[in-house]
Amino acid sequence: MTTFDNETIFDANLRFHPLHGGGNLIGKNIVDRVKTHNKKFKRALDMCCGAGFIGAGLLKEDLVEELHCTDINPKAVELCTANMLNCGYEANCYVSNVFENVRVKFDLITVNPPWWSTYCRQMTKYKDIQSQLIWLDKDWAWHRKFLRNLHLYLNEGGVCILQENETSSDLLSFAGMTQLRVRDHDCPAVDSPVTGDKIYPWILEVTHD
User: For the segment 88-132, what is each residue's pLDDT rounded down to a tens digit?
Assistant: First the structure.
C-alpha cells in the first residue's frame, strides 16, 4: 500500500515516479487543506501532477467529482494515467505547459510546483538526482505565468492551493503576480525523501471571490 506520512490513502499500489518530486510526502498538506473547505468540488485540476499522488489523494478522500491531471513531462502523464487506472480511479490526464492545453475552467486547482527561483545551496544535492523541471522555476517565470492567467481558469468561488517552501519563498514573493485574493498557511516540517534534509513547506492559497 502507498502511504502519505504513514496514513494510507490509496486502495492499490501506486508506482514510484523516477523523477519523484515529493508528492507522496508533502501532498498530504494539499489534500488536508482542501478538506478544510468542507465541500466536494465539482471539477478539479492537479497541475504539475507527476505520478498522481495528490490527484489520487483527492479522489480517495472523495473531495472532487471530476479530475484533470496535467504535467509538462509526457513520461509523468503516462505514469499518472497508469497509476489512476491501477487504483481504479477516473482522471483526464494530459500534457500541458501551465494552461497551454487546458480548455475548461475549474472549481479547484492544486499544484506542487518547483520551489526555487535561483540555484542555491539546497540545490547541490538535488541537481544530480532530479530533473531541473522539478525544482527550478528560474526568476519565478512559471509562477508568474500561472498566477497571471489563473483567473481565466478558476471559476468564481474557486480555490487554488499551491505547496511552496519557506526557505525559498513567502507570500510577498507571489502576491503581486495575480489579481485574485492570496493568503498563506503553515504546514508541518518534513524530511526530504531525496536528501534527508528538513523541508519547511507552506501553502499558498488563491481564491476567486
Answer: 899 999 999 999 999 999 999 999 998 777 655 555 555 555 566
* Rounded CA separation 137/23 (Å): 17
How far is CA 10 from each of CA 46, 122, 197, rounded to the nearest angstrom?
Answer: 17, 31, 26
DSSP the chain: --EETTEE--SS--PPPTT--SHHHHHHHHHHHHHTT-S-EEEEEEES-TTSHHHHHHHHTT-EEEEEEEES-HHHHHHHHHHHHHHT---EEEE-STTTT--S-EEEEEE----BSS--TTHHHHTTTS-HHHHB-GGGHHHHHHHHHGGGTEEEEEEEEEEEETTT--HHHHGGG-SSEEEEEE---EE-TTT--EE-EEEEEEE--
Per-residue pLDDT tens for 152-174? 999 999 999 999 988 889 999 99
pLDDT > 90: percent of the chain = 54
pTM: 0.87
Domain ranges of the chain: 23-207
Indicate the class that CATH gives domain 23-207.
alpha beta
Residues 6+ apart with CB under 8 A from 150: 109, 160, 178, 180, 206
List C-alpha distances in Å: 120 to 90, 138, 167.
Answer: 39, 11, 11
